[in-house]
Protein: HTH-type transcriptional regulator
Organism: Neptunitalea lumnitzerae
Amino acid sequence: MEFSDAKQKFIQSWGALGSQWGINKTMAQIHAFLMISPESVSMEEIMDELKISRGNASMNLRALIDWGIVYKDYKQGERREYFYAEKDLDEMAIKISRERTKREIKPALKVLKEVSSIPANKTTKEKHFKQQTTSLYKFVAKADNALEKITEYNDNWLGKLLKKLIT
Amino acid sequence: MEFSDAKQKFIQSWGALGSQWGINKTMAQIHAFLMISPESVSMEEIMDELKISRGNASMNLRALIDWGIVYKDYKQGERREYFYAEKDLDEMAIKISRERTKREIKPALKVLKEVSSIPANKTTKEKHFKQQTTSLYKFVAKADNALEKITEYNDNWLGKLLKKLIT
DNA sequence: TTGAATTTTCAAAAAAAAATGAAAGTTTAG
DNA sequence: CTAAACTTTCATTTTTTTTTGAAAATTCAA
């Protein structure tokens, strides 16, 4: 396979994967492009490479920065901003995990705690509801906990996790 | 909080969560409704409760069945089909994990293997591309492996994982 | 300051995804 | 078989999400 085909394929696939993960396609594509760029890259170049508008590039770059997986770079005597991706995969995965936890798991826990607190009496339906949402709360809380512990190591967490799993 | 409010809130929130995870809202809502239903439920009831069309209900129920987290139930002497959700949360999480792995991680690995196989020579860009996609491949493969190991226990995997993490 | 270079914002347009509903298909009791 | 009961399909419509692009805002060198 040619380099340019490989690059294209990688960017497209990363974009498609992003969509499945609730991240928009362009955001994932910009991320892919930055990951494979050895130097930091201007918005202009990104627009050009991905054939997207300035507004789109600007908004999605900001989102990536908010997620903490892309950084700005200022070059000596230049107005223009340059961007580069977090390239340490451990670090990247931890940041994504933390962000998703904050945005998705924490709010879910809040709701589960709330709805599982209804009085347990009355109908079978109510009892069952309380019971199910309570287990769900416990389960999600436990998972959240596990995730926190796993990424706590920071350095080479995935390797360490694997080691623990083997024994 | 009233039971009916709690139920509403749970279904709505589960639906919203689904969207963030690349699962469509209705599918997640049907799943939520089934999880809190003590008895298996007909399509009619689902349509009624969630205010959705027959076609929508039919398609999303099928998707849930494909994922292996909802089952059909046939009642003695009745034409109508009834549905119920997998209620064992360990089992449910394992099924979701397996399905997502199959649909997302495996194809991603295939692409990463492919694109990281370009010849390593020539420009810095090409070298960097090869290097990045190779690390990415290794990382994702490792994560896939860990996930497989974690869910391998089947019974109470989350509890067991947590125990391993503590030591 | 000023103004050119650059980025951000956001209303409108376009694209993508999801939902509808009626017709077609399937199943089974009689 | 037949027909009623029920489910599935899919072209069309609706809703949601994403993208565009031009105007407004910002930044900084001179």
User: Anything to note?
Assistant: The mean pLDDT of chain B is 94. Chain B touches chain A through 55 residues (CB under 8 Å). Chain B has two domains: 3-85, 89-166. The beta strands of chain B are 41-42, 70-74, 81-85.
